[in-house]
Predict the 3D structure of the following.
Amino acid sequence: MLKAVLFLASLPLIVFAEAPFDIVVENGRVMDPDSGLDAVRHVGIRDGKIAAISEEALQGKQVLHASGHVVTAGFIDLHQHGQSPENYRAQIHDGITSALELEIGVEDISAWYGEREGKSLVNHGASISHPYSRNVVMTGENPGLEGDALTQPLSSGQLQKLKQRISRGLDRGAVAVGFGLAYSPGATSEEILAIFRLAAEFNANCHVHIRTTTGDASNVEEVLDYSRQSGAGLHIVHINSSGKDLIPQYLEVIREARESGVDVTTECYPYNRGSTFIESHLFDDWETYSDEKLGQHIWIETGEHLSRQTFGRYREQGGILITQPAYSEEMVRAAVASPLTMIASDGMWLKKGRAHPRSFGTYSRILGRYVREQKVLSLMDALAKMSLRPAQRLERRVPSMSNKGRVREGADADIVVFDPDRVIDKGTFEDPAQNPVGIRHVLVNGVTVLNEGKLVEGVTPGRAIRGNR
């Protein structure tokens, strides 16, 4: 009798152990920068988590074939302005499973997350915006990155109101504080340091578009000093477009700061042209540009190169352009290869289906052009820059990120499967709206969203990435 009871008691365990996984990604080259695993394995997924990584074949209700392909953690984009359903569809084709708007950020954290709850294809998160909050404090509204308010200093009373607004955003789960110092020349050192100190109280990093300089690294030193004084983590966005030909000098200053104990990281994207709002303060001196310089700017919606007449007309209208080539391909390679940088797209909002090509193919471009073709960095190093290290950067403020950016049992099943011999971006500056090739499967929280290179319709598995509240 005792033997019979013990046998019956063990049945549920046997049934559970032998039950098929929800999804099996079979026979792929599993690469995990965290553990260093690089071997052919079968990955079993159950309830949105990686439940098994096995040398033996696994049974699954759905089987995704990965022979000859790399299986790795989905890419985490810390700098993605495009946060619309249309943008998310483009991001999936590039292997992005988590997209965060952390540079400029958003003004209303609760509303932003509420708009995406249960409706998103990818995981998503945002910072509370310093410039947008500043606009509201000064004028009662937020016109974006234009207007006289951004050129004016705050009064002491306005600074207190700004701190209250940013504190409220962090209380409501903002991942970080986003700064656009190049767009807000009126922001004083006193103001910026006060907001850095506030961020430190919430264990939030400061993601900063540094001020524009032409001949030295004083703009980098400025924000490093705020980090030293406040104790806030600092992330300098797009070191390539801010540094231009001074990229090696900027990186050296950052390296020295890290060695001295400053909590600073940075990122780059693999293009030598940027993209931004034509109406912003960055172009206040556009009338001094030569005809040749004006003609190197491209209007997103049409792909046309601008003239003096069209630049002026579009600036009155407002919108997004692609900027002139600002630095050499050698400088791009230096940024991509540096052990200091992560990869982030700075992806822009799609306008009539178009944007800078970085909105479509940043990660595929790294894998195809800089890993496979130019061998600027190893495949494992590239994957760490695109998944593990971005996740680690956010873990202090968002502990759940410790389950992203890894391929291990118990981690979130955000997975990308790609062909390392074929993956490449396809978009150009004039014709950007082209999906990359070579990304075969993508899963978000254990749900297949890209299958054999085709989007799966009717699924919205993306979840909010929010700071501790």
Summary: The longest strand covers residues 21-32. The longest helix spans residues 2-18.
